[in-house]
Amino acid sequence: MELPQLLDLVRRGDELAWEAFVRRFQSRVFGLAYHYTAQAEDARDLAQEVFIRIYQNLALVPGEAGCLPWIIRITRNACIDHLRRRKARPPLWDLPADELFDLRSTDRNPEEAHLEAVRKTMVHRALQELTDLNREIILLKEIQGLGLEEISAILEVPVGTVKSRSHRARLELAQKLVAVGMGA
Question: What is the CATH topology of the domain spanning 1-91?
Fold first, then answer.
C-alpha cells in the first residue's frame, strides 16, 4: 500500500493501517535510536516513545516525500533528550547484559560471526568518538540513506555544510578505525 493511502487510513483510526505504518518504519527508528544510545533496551523504549509521539500528532505527519525525514527528526530529538537525561542522571552501572550473552544461532560459522561482531563493535566505538555533528551526518547519510537536502533540514545547517562535513566525517571515521586496528 502506498504511504499516502496508508496515512489516510491511519488518520481515520484504522488499527491495521497503524500497525502497517509502524512495521514500515520501526527498523529505521530502532536503528537510529540504537546508534545514538548504544543500548538495545533504551533504543526499544525510544522507538516506542517515537511512535507514541507520531500517533499523537498524526495530523502533522507530512506526505510521502517528507514523512521519513520528519520521523527521523522526531527520533533524533527523542534520542538527544534521552542522552541529556542520562547524562544528568547516569545509570548505576552500564552493563548491557543482553548483548554479552547473545545465544542465537547464525548460519555462519562461529569464527565469522565473532569477526563480524568485533568489526561492528569497532565501528560503533569509532562512531562514538566522532564529533556530534560528524556522527549525526554519518548516521543520517550512510546508515539511514538520507539525501543532503533532508539532512540539511533535519540538522538545520546549509546543504554546503552537510557536503563538506560529510567528507570530513568519513575521513575522521576512517582515521578512528585505523587507530583501533581496522585499517590493516
Answer: Rna Polymerase Sigma Factor; Chain: A (1.10.1740)
Residues 156, 159: Cα–Cα separation, whole Å: 9
Q: Cite the residue boundaries of each domain of the chain with CATH code 1.10.1740.10.
A: 1-91
pLDDT band at 62 (very low <50, low <70, confident <90, very high): confident
As a CATH number, domain 104-184 is: 1.10.10.10
Quick one: DSSP state of residue 141?
I
From 15-24, 93-102, 136-145, 170-179, the region with the lowest mean pLDDT: 93-102
DSSP 76-122: HHHHHHHHHHHHHS--S----HHHHT-----SS-HHHHHHHHHHHHH
pLDDT above 60: residue 86: yes
